[in-house]
Amino acid sequence: VQLTDSGGGSVQPGDSLRLSCGVSGYIGRRYCMAWFRHAPGKEREEVARIDIYDATRYADSVQGRFTISRANAENALYLQMNDLKPEDTAVYYCAALEYLGYCPRTPDVWGQGTQVVVSS
């Protein structure tokens, strides 16, 4: 399984972006998927995850503004980000976590990352 992130860019506060993650290799319902981000000077943070039943979970900092979704037929993962704030500036990574009867905390596969900059 390989993951390829895309969709980052430079935007102004209040704007929206949609990140995409292309998945090569069959994952079907074997993997939970997640988005992480890493900002300069901060620890890596899990932003959102979606399990094999499409249940989702979000970090408090993005709840209500970000939406994670998966399109298994397209082998793709998305992160719709609305009302972006300067503190959302980071490199965003998609990740796959092999389902073990639960979704583990640590991903098995990472994308290469896509930069998001939110600045006026």
How are the elements arranged and paired?
Layout: E1 2-6, E2 9-11, E3 17-24, E4 31-38, E5 45-50, E6 56-58, E7 66-71, E8 76-81, E9 90-98, E10 109-110, E11 114-118
Parallel strand pairs: 2-11
Antiparallel strand pairs: 1-3, 3-8, 4-5, 4-9, 5-6, 7-8, 9-10, 9-11
Would you give an account of this structure?
About 0% of the residues lie in helices and about 50% in strands. The protein has no helices and 11 strands. It has strands spanning about 1-5, 10, 15-25, 30-40, 45-50, 55-60, 65-70, 75-80, 90-100, 110, 115-120. The strands form 2 sheets. Strands 2, 4, 5, 6, 9, 10 and 11 form a 7-stranded mixed sheet that branches. A hairpin with a 4-residue loop joins strand 7 (about 65-70) and strand 8 (about 75-80). The model has no long low-confidence stretch (mean pLDDT about 95).
- Return the string of H and E elements: EEEEEEEEEEE
Mean of residue pLDDT? Answer: 94
Q: What is the overall shape?
A: globular
Share of helix, binned: under 10%
Distance between the amino and carboxyl termini? 38 Å
- Tell me about the biggest sheet? 7 strands, mixed
Percent range for β-strand residues: over 45%
Number of strands: 11
Helix-strand makeup class:
mainly beta
Number of helices: 0
**What radius of gyration results from the CA coordinates?**
13 Å
Pick out the low-confidence regions.
Answer: none
Features:
7-stranded mixed beta sheet, mainly beta, 4-stranded antiparallel beta sheet, 51% strand, globular, 0% helix, 120 residues
